[in-house]
Amino acid sequence: MTGELSAMPDIDPASLFVTRTAKPKVPPPAKALVFGHTFTDHMLAIPWSQSTGWQAPQIRPYGPLHLEPSSTVLHYAQTLFEGMKAYRDKTGKVTLFRPDMNMKRMNKSAARIALPTFDGDALLDCIKTLIRLDAHWIPQEVGHSLYIRPTLIGTQKAIGVNPPNEALLFVICSPVGPYYPTGFKPVSLMATTEYVRAAPGGTGGYKLGANYAPGVVPQKEAAKLGYSQNLWLQGPEHYLTEVGTMNLFVVLRKNDGGVELVTPPLDDVILPGVTRDSVLALARDHASGKQPIAGMTGKLEVSERPITMKEVKEKAEAGNLLEVFGTGTAAIICPVNRIGYMGKDINVPAGQSGIGDLAKAFLQEIQGRQMGTIPSEWSVIVSE
Ligand code: COI
């Protein structure tokens, strides 16, 4: 998918050249991994310039980038990224989970901040070559994977706010286990009323670096009060939007005894998460009877609708708040056990016991498709 720059050369996997490291490292054991702290031996880099289009992709030893101090990324946050994961099963087969969605989202982010777009299939081909080269770095334990971080930055050497005439797309890979240092445990949330993550007409629906740095201070403040993440609200009505770096789901008991799975609708304040989309697809297939999930309630209603803190509080008080969980590539599915809101805590019952029935069922279904124990068209083979 190349947009306005289609006359220029696109990413060409046939011209990929590989320089192997002369100093391969030994991957650490899975239990020693801290999320995002360890990187594999190689990286992919693809330079772009306005005059040449996309240049030959290179796989080279993982290492520092050479950037001029004037590079626009360093001044105006001309940067966007993706998070995707590769899995290795017991037979050694390596797969990616729904990588086409990451390629589409990355191009949407690029178009939003005037960075060059590209052929997503061609980039994916290059990423697969990188993963095959470093496949021995992929931990095989359940809940572990190779986190892949495609990143695109503006590298024009000039201090002026313009579409950059040079850019660099690079991809690094990190073997990972759980995202949170607490492991696969529930998190507590502080509903942030003082700051917003995103606003209508803004860039919250795109995966831009600029959306993340402003979340660090609110996150620190939540941590100081004993909460692990922020719950981001929107508007004077305090609509729930996202959780820390994840999408948000709320499970409510309905008056007729059924269960409603609610997530805020996609708009310009909600990031279109791949795991969010996967949960919704599984839930809808279950609710329609197309593909029932064992052990999950039959009376499930799936709603993409706005939900306010007032409604969550009222449902909790009436005993009808069943579960809250976050979804994201890094965290997969993360149960929530309490929400601090306006000085008081709302306890989430399922979170107290570790994980609720729905969150657990979705986690098992998604992990099964990721690890290859449940056959799925979402799983894309990298090597057999
Ligand atoms: C992901 O879930 O992949 C994310 O991008 C969150 C990230 C900030 C670790």
Automatic annotation (TrEMBL):
Presence of the UniProt keyword Amino-acid biosynthesis in the record: yes
Enzyme class: transferase
Domain of life the protein comes from: Eukaryota
Record's GO cellular component terms: mitochondrion
CDD domains linked: BCAT_beta_family (cd01557)
N6-(pyridoxal phosphate)lysine: modified positions: K207
One Pfam family linked to the record: Aminotran_4
Single biological process term from Gene Ontology: L-valine biosynthetic process
Catalytic activity: L-leucine + 2-oxoglutarate = 4-methyl-2-oxopentanoate + L-glutamate; L-isoleucine + 2-oxoglutarate = (S)-3-methyl-2-oxopentanoate + L-glutamate; L-valine + 2-oxoglutarate = 3-methyl-2-oxobutanoate + L-glutamate
A GO molecular-function annotation: L-leucine-2-oxoglutarate transaminase activity
InterPro entries: Aminotrans_IV, Aminotrans_IV_CS, Aminotransferase-like, B_amino_transII, BCAT-like_C, BCAT-like_N, BCAT_family
Keyword annotations of the record: Amino-acid biosynthesis, Aminotransferase, Branched-chain amino acid biosynthesis, Pyridoxal phosphate, Transferase
Cofactor(s) demanded: pyridoxal 5'-phosphate
The protein's name in its UniProt record: Branched-chain-amino-acid aminotransferase
Organism: Serendipita vermifera MAFF 305830
